Amino acid sequence: MRNNKSTIKAWAMFDWSNSAYNLVITSTIFPAYYTIITTTQQNGDKVMFFGRVFTNTALSNYALSIAYLIMAFVLPILSSIADYRGNKKVFMKAFTYLGSFACAGLFFFKLETLELGIICFGLAAIGYIGGMMFNNSYLPEIASVDQQDRVSAKGYAYGYVGSVILQIICFIFVLKPEFFGITDASLPARLSFLLVGIWWITFSQIPFKKLPAGSPNFDKTSKLNVKSGFEELLKVWHQLKEMYFLKRFLLAFFFYSMGVQTIMLVAAGFGEKVLKLGTSKLIAIILIIQLVAIGGALIISYLAKKYGNIQVIIALVIVWIAICAGAYHIENEQQFFALAVVVGLVMGGIQSISRSTYSKFLPENTPDTASFFSFYDVTEKLAIVIGLFSFAYIEEFTGSMRNSALSLASFFVIGLVVLISIFFLKSDSSSSLTKD
Fold first, then answer.
1. Which residue from 99, 136, 382, 396 has the highest number of Cβ atoms inside 10 Å of its Cβ?
2. Which CATH homologous superfamily contains domain 5-215+227-426?
3. Contact (Cβ atoms closer than 8 angstroms) between residue 148 and residue 432
């Protein structure tokens, strides 16, 4: 039953539960902790990982890109099984448990256990990616087309609120360890990683209890013969040929996601390494980003309803291009703070509106939503792989993260060109995706 308030609230609680990973592990405490412990007087920013020397921040970005690449290949297979068996909640649970236990495993991460830390870091990313894909695929099932922007924004808003609450708790450990009798300088950060795992697995029980298992898409009287997930993607691709605007939107999404997701994943490392902000300032700035992002997601949802999704996404991409240019020229923490506020305003908004725009382009009553959202997620994951790998490689090749940040603007420009073509081609349509 669509537009059921309790179901939508439970669905949004999944964002509440796993966004703590996104904030603490990818955005604040882990990047700062990782950069600090892997930067030494003896070796500078170089680390040894399984016998090979890497730049520390490049190594973590390579690890993330590999995690996303793995999921780009695995998710099509699993979504195919989920569509045919109608059991996508089982996979949603499995990835959630993997991610939460991996975060808890980061409690044991120190410089001497670098390999363990990077492996847990990658597994946590895999758990987050998989859980989010299956959660996203519920959107067209729980909300009608006219409500999907609002519901998608509600999920992101819940995620920001939940993650900020846990971040504040972790913030107390990091800033005032003496209140708890902590003398080990590494313990507050490692306790934060453990808390993320506990938070993630605890609050995810709410959507697990309320959301439906999924709708089976096969004849139960016959023997199940699960097709290759890649055959499912090919099937979706053939269907996309009949969905002209959806196909073009995915192309634009592919390019601008290279920039958006990479910036979100490397921002904290950039602030620590380039500007030496320190953990406390970095956490404070990222917290402000999250608070601003709550309002940003809701405001952008309102603007999309008033002006049209495509127009709003075009405006957001232009802002992201300016952000890349600003990151290249940034010189002090005040400028970083100002740039962070802008990132917060557009961060949740572009993710939320992209998810709902894709969902709106799907024909109503599409039975294999998991396969379509798998295609969407594979598109995004491959974009992240290219974005992160490019960022890491340019840093290692040029010796500067600034050059990496500036290079991301080229991805946004390509996405912008495609979006503008969609706007002009669809400007005479009565669709809510564009307004006259």
1. 99
2. MFS general substrate transporter like domains (1.20.1250.20)
3. no
CA distance 62 to 39: 17
| CA of residue 98 relative to chain centroid, distance | 17
Asked whether the beta carbons of 426 and 310 are under 8 A apart, the reply is: yes
Paired tokens of 147? 């409500």
Q: How far apart are CA 33 and CA 124, in angstroms?
A: 16
Residues 6+ apart with CB under 8 A from 119: none
pLDDT at position 124: 96
Chain-centroid distance, C-alpha 410:
20
| Amino acid, res. 41 | Q
pLDDT of residue 188: 92
The helix (run of H) or strand (run of E) holding residue 54 is strand 52-55
Task: Please answer whether residues 315 and 366 qualify as being in contact, where contact means their C-beta atoms are separated by less than 8 angstroms.
Answer: no
Is the Cα dihedral 132, 133, 138, 144 positive or negative?
positive
Helix, strand, coil share of the chain (percent; to 5): 80, 0, 20
Cβ neighbours of residue 356 closer than 8 Å, sequence gap 6 or more = 139, 148, 149, 151, 152, 153, 301, 304, 309
d(CA 149, CA 163): 21
Given pLDDT bands bounded at 50, 70 and 90, which one contains residue 366? low
Angle at 112 between CA 400 and CA 384, to 5 degrees: 40
Q: Which helix (H) or strand (E) holds 277?
A: none
CB 32 within 8 A of CB 279: yes
Look up residue 118 and give its amino acid. Answer: I
Q: Contact at 8 Å (CB) between 27 and 231?
A: no
What number is the average pLDDT over the span 17-32?
A: 86
Domain map of the chain by residue range?
Answer: 5-215+227-426
% of the chain surpassing 70 pLDDT = 91
Measured CA to CA, the distance from residue 250 to residue 354 in angstroms comes to 10
pTM to 2 decimals?
A: 0.75
Residue 62 has pLDDT above 70, yes or no: yes
3-state secondary structure of 47: strand
Tens of pLDDT along 147-180? 887 888 888 789 878 988 998 898 888 888 888 8
What is the per-residue pLDDT for 214?
Answer: 65
**Residues with Cβ < 8 Å from 244, sequence gap 6 or more?**
none
Query: How many residues comprise the chain?
Result: 436
Residue entry with tokens 């790998």:
389
